[in-house]
């Protein structure tokens, strides 16, 4: 008799965004004439940069002719893309990362979800609260937690991110092995300084722990003093893996391309206490369970690093950041406390009531979709997240509707 | 101290095809002027069908304009593709599969690798020998095996596929829970009849086991009596998951699109013995660890089902099958025993000596890359696989060189 992986049965209800989608669909069904504006899920709305489109087309044309057709590519990604990344995203900022430390994938969701497979099921995991649900759910599936009780999974160390610590969690009081961090943060939009990030790197070194650093939103940083990469911090190469994505920086949510950086020195340990480097383990996983990203998509991603591509991505990001500024200004005017917007496409708003209640109110009275903070964890209760990913016109209209709904 | 998943340390050397690539690179480095012909890895060489190219371009153009731009799609895949699959690949053949039982992914390698996560780490796994290494390695990583000894992982049930059983394994003598089957077979090219497949479905029903049926090569079937899908067999909906891919049927190895079918009735059990349906478990995994396939790629795959697309794919397949016929004829002429070619792009050849020795001989004397059978398992020792995936010209040239090398 085949038994299932019973850890799946511990998972709470459905995945946050599916849940939201269902409520929105029900509302739309009941009010087919209502024009709903979505500031919920962090999904981009503007077209791909023209440089990416041109490169995409050129690569599709290559696939149309036997002599230039490409079959299986390297599982780790093509050298042209890995080299462009190493040069532009890291070396140009003084972070020593080489092309062969970069693994191209079809999404940071996949990579942040899959990375935990490399580690012992006994690993003590520290996860921020509020948090992107993928970090949490994938560790539940892998059996690193107990049951769900009182709004939290037993056996995990939650890192509270609240107004009291300016939404940057403090070091844990108990020893942990695997630490998830995300800055600029999803969902709060908060940022971490180099000095604060250094305390985490030092903690990881002292405790032989590993930091999983999600930098999917680094392109939104405007404050020049903030780190774009954890590898700007001394010592991070030994204790940190970094995740990046073109989803938000170049509008690739529907095109699918991302990458993960695993420096050669980065290590964990076997049960005899011997150092085991993570790079060959991930390489083995990548080669065994993945077959590389679509060739034309990798060419489209490469174009992000051309002069036109850089300028076009910058303009995209600026547009979203201006939306974030408008949202922040409106929220302030309505006397809500908030964080984010300055260096992130998200505004995290203390809504002075239950998150889902506020979500339903905004949906029903304003026809605006937000993300209920409670969906990101216990510390998110009483908050909602508004996303800047929409057209200027829609953002302005949504803010006007929110003003009226709250009047 | 973070510990690794030590099951990874049980994995043998490097992944088969990386291993081959290294030997070929070393040979090419030593003989930079030699023109090597690759009949090793099953990678297609002919351009994408024009219908797919046209659809691909159109979808890229949609991504260039805000009003038609698509961000995150459904994790399970777009309805336009799932519906085309249900209709053309299943319902048209009398197999009752609906669109919402189909999950689009970026590769059958990923799906066949990831599916085991849904099941208990105690599951008793039956794996054919010879076999596509992904089935094996992913179960090793998940801890369902003991150490590697004498050419095999302890704790697995190996299903010998040899000349004695015409390369279709017999039912196991001991109870198993999870059964991997692949027909037309990779690497042997052997096929299974409906009557034989029915014995496996009946076994699975009687033992509450599950069949993971890899049908990546179904498009190569010429014998009308053979099943294209396991769902052509009565009762299979309750006990079988099927994997399909556009890699070989439409030349998508570098474009990346595949799908997995999980019928609603398909179930495993929890430790209390209660039936647990697999569809919602896989849906949860897909939504948590995957973000859908690139939109333009899904449009390119949809075009496979247009009238032009069907005709073009058929022509592609016919070209490769004619190559397979040429290889089979040459091999027969050289007095080797073989199977395959008739309904598959592979020819499995008994080479009368050590597989890797024959591999090295073919590489060095003929400049031809094959795949050593031993890389697919113990039963593959003494065999090599030749693939029909190359241009006619290269296949003819390779066969001539092999004739001379063996003369």
TrEMBL record, chains A, B:
It is an enzyme of class 2 (transferase). Pathway: Amino-acid biosynthesis; L-lysine biosynthesis via DAP pathway; LL-2,6-diaminopimelate from (S)-tetrahydrodipicolinate (aminotransferase route): step 1/1. GO terms for biological process: lysine biosynthetic process via diaminopimelate. It catalyses: (2S,6S)-2,6-diaminopimelate + 2-oxoglutarate = (S)-2,3,4,5-tetrahydrodipicolinate + L-glutamate + H2O + H(+). Pfam families: Aminotran_1_2. It comes from the Bacteria. Its EC number is 2.6.1.83. Residues 35-402 form the Aminotransferase class I/classII large domain. One of its GO terms (molecular function) is pyridoxal phosphate binding. Keywords: Aminotransferase, Pyridoxal phosphate, Transferase. Its cofactor is pyridoxal 5'-phosphate. PANTHER family: AMINOTRANSFERASE. This is LL-diaminopimelate aminotransferase. It comes from Candidatus Electronema aureum.
């Amino acid at each position: 008799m085949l038994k299932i992986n019973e850890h799946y049965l511990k998972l709470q209800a459905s995945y946050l965004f599916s849940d939201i989608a269902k409520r929105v669909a029900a509302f739309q069904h009941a009010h087919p004439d209502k024009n709903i504006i979505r500031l919920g899920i962090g999904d981009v709305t503007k077209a791909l940069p023209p440089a990416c489109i041109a490169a995409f087309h050129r690569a599709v044309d290559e696939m149309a002719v036997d002599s230039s057709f490409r079959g299986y590519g390297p599982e780790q990604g093509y050298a042209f893309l890995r080299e462009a990344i190493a040069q532009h995203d890291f070396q140009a900022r003084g972070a020593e990362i080489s092309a062969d430390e970069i693994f191209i994938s079809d999404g940071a969701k996949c990579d942040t979800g899959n990375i935990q497979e490399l580690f012992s099921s006994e690993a003590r995991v520290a996860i921020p609260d509020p948090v992107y649900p993928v970090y949490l759910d994938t560790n539940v599936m892998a059996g690193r937690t107990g049951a769900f009780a009182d709004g939290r999974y037993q056996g995990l160390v939650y890192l509270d991110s609240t107004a009291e610590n300016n939404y940057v969690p403090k070091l844990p009081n108990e020893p942990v092995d695997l630490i998830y961090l995300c800055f600029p943060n999803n969902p709060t939009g908060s940022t971490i300084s180099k000095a604060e990030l250094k305390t985490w790197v030092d903690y990881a070194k002292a405790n032989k722990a590993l930091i999983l650093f999600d930098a999917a939103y680094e392109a939104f940083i405007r404050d020049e003093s903030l780190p774009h990469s954890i590898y700007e911090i001394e010592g991070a190469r030994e204790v940190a893996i970094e995740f990046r994505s073109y989803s938000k920086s170049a509008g690739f949510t529907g095109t699918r391309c991302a990458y993960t950086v695993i420096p050669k020195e980065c290590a964990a340990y076997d049960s005899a206490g011997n150092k085991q480097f993570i790079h060959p383990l991930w390489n083995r996983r990548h080669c065994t369970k993945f077959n590389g990203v679509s060739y034309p998509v990798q060419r489209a991603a490469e174009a992000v690093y051309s002069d036109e591509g850089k300028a076009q991505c910058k303009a995209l990001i600026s547009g979203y950041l201006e939306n974030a500024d408008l949202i922040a200004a409106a929220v302030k005017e309505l006397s809500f406390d908030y964080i984010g917007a300055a260096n992130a496409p998200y505004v995290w708003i203390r809504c002075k009531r239950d998150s889902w209640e506020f979500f339903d109110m905004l949906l029903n009275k304003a026809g605006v979709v937000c993300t209920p903070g409670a969906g990101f964890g216990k510390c998110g209760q009483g908050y909602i997240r508004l996303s800047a990913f929409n057209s200027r016109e829609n953002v302005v209209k949504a803010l006007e509707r929110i003003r009226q709904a709250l009047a």
